[in-house]
Request: fold
Amino acid sequence: MSSKVHLGHTARKRFGQNFLTDSNVINRIVGAIAPDNEHVMVEIGPGLGALTEPVAAAVDKLTVVELDRDLVERLHQHPVLKHKLEVHQGDALQFDFMQLVQPGKKMKVFGNLPYNISTPLMFHLFEFAEQIETMHFMLQKEVVLRLSASPGCKAYGRLTVMAQYFCQIVPVLEVPPTSFTPAPKVDSAVVRLLPYETKPWPCKDVNVLRHLCTTAFNMRRKTLRNNLKLLLSDEDFAQLGIDASLRPEQISVPQYVAMANLVIDKKA
Ligand code: SAM
Reply:
């Protein structure tokens, strides 16, 4: 059982604090992030600086968003980091990432995310996808499986469809609990999300796609016809060439986009 105290800080469970302590894993993540000065480098949840220090060493400036005031105070006092960091104390779920964008410079966002907020945080970040070059996140392994799932898999769901609508998903590395202090109860994995410059299946209104996915996956055991009956008729499914007796996890991302676009056209 690993200690809850690391570098003199008691890990706070409610902030999802599991600090990375494995230098091999840290080096591989930093290599995957490929820090540079051509992008606005943004870290979510820098904590005690496991990723912050090596990334900051490679660039002129690093912007961080951290919720824990004690950790923010430590970052302000850090002898080296205080000269490189722009620190925002607050909740990354509420943070307006647009304020960080600079003319001609997209963001590279990364973080060992607090697992309790990782899914809503990714949904929040998708809203800024056009301003993001790459995202690298440490997540619960199960979430990485959901992000990269194919239709027909148990892990395929709303998160899969929305993530694959915005981004290409590349699993990078699996990480055991022993790489953290304190050790989490679950396995972890690092994933790379690459927002599309040009989306392969553009949707006319992403809010409609989001609503359609939420509605479709609300009852996974039921058919599309049943779950989407308020949005699409049998004639609509026939027009799209989609079998309405299938379950939501059997439908591909382009098929979800086609359904959303038809819902939009019908409203127009
Ligand atoms: N990056 C450090 C590391 O790898 O050792 C810490 C990772 S720890 C899993 C998650 C970090 O996110 C903690 O520093 C925690 O305080 C911070 N955090 C938790 N909730 C947050 C939120 N809503 N917004 C921003 N930071 C948050």
In short: Residues 253-267 form the longest helix (15 residues). DSSP finds ten helices and eleven strands in the chain. Residues 15-20, 44-48, 50-51, 65-68, 71, 91-93, 112, 114, 117 surround S-adenosylmethionine (CB under 6 Å). The two ends are 59 Å apart (CA to CA).
